[in-house]
Amino acid sequence: MTLFPDHLTALSRETLESFRRAGLRATAAESCTGGLIAGLLTEIGGSSDVVGRTFVTYSNEAKQQVLGVPASVLEAKGAVSAETVTAMAEGALRACGRDADVAVAVSGVAGPGGGSPEKPVGTVYIAVASRGGMTSADRHQFPGDRTEIRLRTVEAALRMMAERVSSKPV
């Protein structure tokens, strides 16, 4: 028995294997998923050869203190923004030192409350940063309840990580 749906467990295995083949290590900086990405990756035995540390930075204060997200970015753009997840992913790489080559960061409005006309429930930003490479951030609008939004975020984040490792030099 696993904690996660079978398709996500399979995706986690595939993602870990893509990192192993490339000889790379991964980290995650999570807000709205609250550690689900780390939980899913570490659900797979032997994942410690890919994942050394991850970060749950749910509050803006944690984003600033742990990942170095500038207060000015949070004030101007908000926690749910491309700029914030970009800073989170890049901050996670800095915080890991040599322990990670690729970082994924997520922040969003999982609901049921907290949405706005500009950022309704289901709005999620995901960024992937790689050491010595570019950081890319995407906006998603996921349907469903809180659990569905969070699991869809985890799935999209793992897919972005695997794609970064398999299609682009790190």
Report the span from N to C terminus.
Answer: 35 Å
DSSP strand count: 5
User: CATH homologous superfamily?
Assistant: CinA-like
Output the number of helix runs.
Answer: 6
The SSE order reads HEHEHHHEEEH
Low-confidence stretches: none
Give the strand line-up of the largest sheet.
2-1-3-4-5
Quaternary structure of the protein = single chain
Largest sheet: 5 strands, mixed
How would you state the average pLDDT, rounded? 96
Q: Which term fits the overall shape?
A: globular
Helix % is: 40-55%
How many independent structural domains? 1
- CATH topology title: Maf protein
CATH A-level architecture: Alpha-Beta Complex
Rg calc: 15 Å
Secondary-structure class? alpha/beta
CATH class, please? Alpha Beta
What are the main properties of this structure?
5-stranded mixed beta sheet; Maf protein; alpha/beta; 170 residues; 6 helices; single chain
